[in-house]
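Title: Prediction job returns without error message
Component: structure pipeline
Severity: low
Priority: P3
Assignee: unassigned

Description:
Job completed but the reporter wants confirmation the result is attached to the right record. Sequence as submitted:
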Amino acid sequence: MNIRVVVACLSVVLLASCAKSRIKEHPEWSKFYEAYGIKNACFILRDNNHESIHYYNKERSTQRFLPASTFKIFNSLVALETAVAADDQLVIKWDGVPRKPEWDKDMTMREAFKVSCLPYYQEIARRIGPAKIQHYIDTVKYGNMNMAGRIDNFWLNDSLQISADEQTGFLKKLYFAELPFSERSQRIVKTMMLREETPGYNLYYKTGTGMVGNKTIYWIVGFAEKIEHVKEPEGSMNKSDVRNYPYFFAQNFELPTSDTSKDWFKVHVDILHDVLKDYGAIPKS
């Protein structure tokens, strides 16, 4: 056999082997969900440093669900890009309708993002309008790109859907400012997502909760930056160099809507920490 053919065949085999080794299922992560009685869940972690992808429940990770409040990431980007919001300090006045204590006041976009204020972002969507939102959804190829229903409800009514796998791809592009938005818009939204800042890591995320039939879907999506201090060689002007290693993640699980036995918001943040620590994306202590 021609040596070039042999080399080509070996290259294909090696590449396939490398690709396989970079995608790993983690059935052991089921213990974090089973501890709370959660049966239908998934987690996907993209390790940018090793160019690898790690799953718990790969099948569910590629299944699309309504994005619920995780869509506020996208909504914020479009608001900034279209100048509907000049910056994250755009104030929208409370309409006077009592809903939740943390929502019932005038607030900026940064404040609304932090408390996941639905009325604020519904007004943002109305101001942007369906044509512009659809344009960016199509350009980004966000999930199934379906905006059926009201302009202020399509991310909640199960029309628009996105998978955990697609969420991490979207977030990776946001992190590296590779989305079809200005660097400024992406930088502002990234800072809005920062929820935990420690000497060992930074954790950025957005949660989301949506109802489909008699089930509630719980999302948490974002990225972690593991902070390491790398010593410079002898003679270097800098004694140490701080480096951030990013990991992109998306988790969702479902429960009967009637299940109010636990604080599920706290639960899915706790599970996020458990998985990230188990993998080594954030320090264990």
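Comment from assignee: result matches the submitted record. The first strand starts at residue 23 and ends at 25.
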